[in-house]
Design a protein that fits this description.
Chain B: Belongs to the peptidase U32 family. UbiU subfamily. The complex is a heterodimer of chains A (297) and B (331). Chain A is α/β, with parallel strands linked by helices and 297 residues long. In chain A, 30% of the residues lie in helices and 22% in strands. Helices cover 34% and strands 22% of the residues of chain B. In chain B, helix 1 (10-18) packs parallel to helix 2 (44-56).
């Protein structure tokens, strides 16, 4: 049976919100939990030691835990935090950029590549497999055709590296050194007043025709529609996908997890997929269409 | 420092060389490079002619194969590396780890440069590419401040090339899927951002509208100059305010930083713009040649001449330039 994972929290939540979220999540039917700050170096409601303590607690409750690294590394301070995360031998890390690959490899630490790492072909997977790759996420802009070929290619090379697919949530689409939240408030990035914390689901960026295009979230830009591949789970199972990733949201995720859990067990949910925050669904990338499209609705 | 200029066509290549480029970079006429534009880029015959022209005049030629091949494109991308090798280029600019591995094994003697699309923003990342694929040089993404560039340079195991002038990518290159989210084509997959096939212009009672796959990117009032609808440079609404929520249409210009870049040990400055006309390339290359020669001959007295400034401003988007992320306040 496919595993369910909770990706790293991409939003900026208060310390208590984070602890509450995981206190609940430990009861949910998810197998793997990714922990850590993957977006912004200024977000420090939890320190590295807090994340490690949390990781040990969740592990003790039977969850597989992976420590996620920051996606855009810009400074020596970023590298110090990265080394801190990789300076342990209890947990696999999710490498979200090549700095993390380098540090993990140097420390002989097994790693998984996150969905923002550019893994587009089997040759790339082979390079990484030689270095300690223990799993990989499909880049978000790729769909089932590429995935099928990648899984097939891995088999042909006799490499057993489990594939994970980002299957529910707002798609992380871009990273910048500019903070768009700070820009909105006309604040310098270095003195952003941590305004992201007021937007636990990001800020909606709409066209002047009110079309929801993106969600601004600090230095990251996410999709305006929510990616939802729940209906594709049976196909993913047939393809040999190992893990399906759900991206944390601060309300109602429990219901989503329950439904994904039902579908992976072959039970058809009796109600429609839940709409927690006002946001249209999309699945275009899966079908090699524009990501914002909704195919087969 | 070396001046590296774009060549979207043979006339552009020749004019860049004639106006003082130390090196030019080009791509093949397909999606194997990150600047796929209709009517631009090179077939093998034109590339051979360009390489001969440049080599006779002492300039080097780099071939950019810097998009990410998906499994069904692998043979084509691998073939592009083979073509570049047989043409006798001085370096291949690559982003994909699989292709870097292929090139390093099959053509160990042809230098490999890490493309800006390879998204290496730290010396640890550069060490990864050096250790695994023995790259000689890397182009840094346009997201680092000058201090940060200095810190990377201090520990870098390879030569560094930085962007000097041209369009400003606000997102870390190689990690931006905004374009494929709207249009299905992105720099990584197809070498296209906000591709022309998805653009539509429409005169309406509210003004001139630009659309990308039917999404309204911008609406211009009377007399307002309209830019290409690159989606991150449109005007959008956030919490009731309409503004350039991601970035204004401006160009990057780092002329003022040239002495500092030299001081940091940067090996090359790169001009963006394979989509630009030969006349544009001539003006930009000549201006930067003057500046670099000036720096070389009188490093202590380097100042940016007003003439250079006005030439470059006249070639910039909206007549505006920025130091971009090199300047921390920009953020």
């Amino acid at each position: 049976m496919m595993k369910l994972s909770l990706g790293p929290i991409l939003w900026f939540w208060s310390r208590q919100t984070v602890f509450d979220f995981y206190a609940n999540a430990v009861e949910w039917p998810v197998d793997t939990i990714y922990l850590g700050e993957a977006v912004c170096s200024r977000r420090r409601e939890l320190k590295p030691d807090d994340w490690l303590d949390l990781a040990r607690d969740l592990k003790a409750c039977g969850k597989d835990v992976v420590l996620s690294t920051q996606t855009l590394i810009e400074s020596e301070a970023d590298l110090r935090r990265l080394r801190r995360i990789c300076d342990q031998n209890e947990f696999v890390v999710e490498a979200n950029d090549q700095s993390a690959l380098q540090v993990a490899i140097r420390n002989n630490l097994p790693f998984i590549t996150g969905p923002s790492m550019n893994v587009y072909n089997v040759a790339t997977l082979k390079v990484l497999a030689k270095q300690g790759l223990k799993g990989w996420n499909l880049p978000v802009e790729l769909g089932k055709a590429a995935l099928a070929q990648l899984i097939k290619g891995l088999k042909e090379e006799d490499l057993d590296v489990p594939a994970e697919v980002f299957a529910w949530g707002f798609l992380p689409l871009a990273w910048s050194s500019r903070c768009f939240t700070a820009r909105h408030y006309n604040l310098p990035k270095d003195n952003c007043e941590f305004r992201c914390i007021e937007h636990p689901a990001g800020m909606e960026l709409r066209s002047r025709e009110s079309q929801e295009l993106f969600r601004i979230n600090g230095v990251s830009t996410l999709s305006g529609s929510r990616y939802d591949l729940m209906r594709e789970l049976p196909e993913m199972e047939r393809m040999g996908v190992s893990t399906v990733r759900l991206s944390p949201e601060y309300q109602g995720l429990e219901e989503v997890v329950k439904r994904f859990d039902q579908v992976r067990r072959g039970v058809t949910p009796t109600t429609d997929p839940l709409q927690l925050v006002e946001a249209p669904p999309c699945n275009g990338y899966w079908y090699r269409k524009p990501g914002m499209d909704l195919v087969g609705a | 420092m070396e001046l590296v200029c774009p060549a979207g066509s043979l006339p552009a290549l020749k004019i860049a060389v004639d106006n003082g480029a130390n090196a030019v970079y080009f791509g093949f006429r397909d999606s194997t490079n990150a600047r796929q534009f209709a009517g631009l880029n090179f077939n093998d015959k034109r590339a051979a002619e360009g390489i001969e022209y440049a080599h006779l005049r002492g300039a080097r030629v780099f071939c950019a194969i810097n998009t990410y091949p998906q499994p069904d494109g692998w043979e084509q991308w691998k073939g592009a590396v083979d073509r570049a090798a047989s043409l006798g280029v001085d370096a291949i600019i690559l982003a994909d780890m699989g292709l870097l591995d292929y090139a390093a094994n099959k053509y160990p003697d042809i230098p490999r440069h890490l493309s800006v699309q390879g998204s290496a923003t730290s010396h640890e990342a550069l060490s990864f590419y050096k250790d695994n694929f023995d790259i000689r040089r890397a182009v840094l993404p346009r997201v680092l401040s000058l201090d940060q560039v200095g810190s990377v340079a201090k520990h870098s195991p390879v030569e560094l090339e930085v962007f000097a002038f041209g369009s400003l990518c606000i997102m870390a290159e190689g990690r931006c899927y905004l374009s494929s989210y709207l249009t299905d084509e992105s720099p990584n997959t197809r070498g296209a951002c906000s591709p022309a096939k998805a653009v539509r212009w429409q005169e309406t009672p509210q003004g001139l509208e630009s659309r990308l796959n039917n999404v309204l990117i911008d609406r211009y009032g009377h007399g307002e100059s309209a830019g290409y609808p690159t989606l991150c440079k449109g005007r959008f609404e956030v919490e009731g305010s309409v503004y350039h929520a991601i970035e204004e249409p401006v160009s990057l210009n780092t002329l003022d930083l040239v002495p500092e870049l030299q001081e940091l040990g940067i090996s090359a400055v790169k001009i963006e713009g394979r989509q630009r006309s030969p006349a544009y390339i001539a003006d930009v290359a000549r201006t930067w040649r003057h500046a670099l020669d000036n720096l070389e001959s009188r490093p202590e007295e380097f100042t940016v001449e007003p003439q250079w400034r006005s030439t470059l401003a006249s070639l910039s988007e909206g007549g505006l330039t920025t130091l971009g992320a090199y300047h921390r306040k920009w953020k």
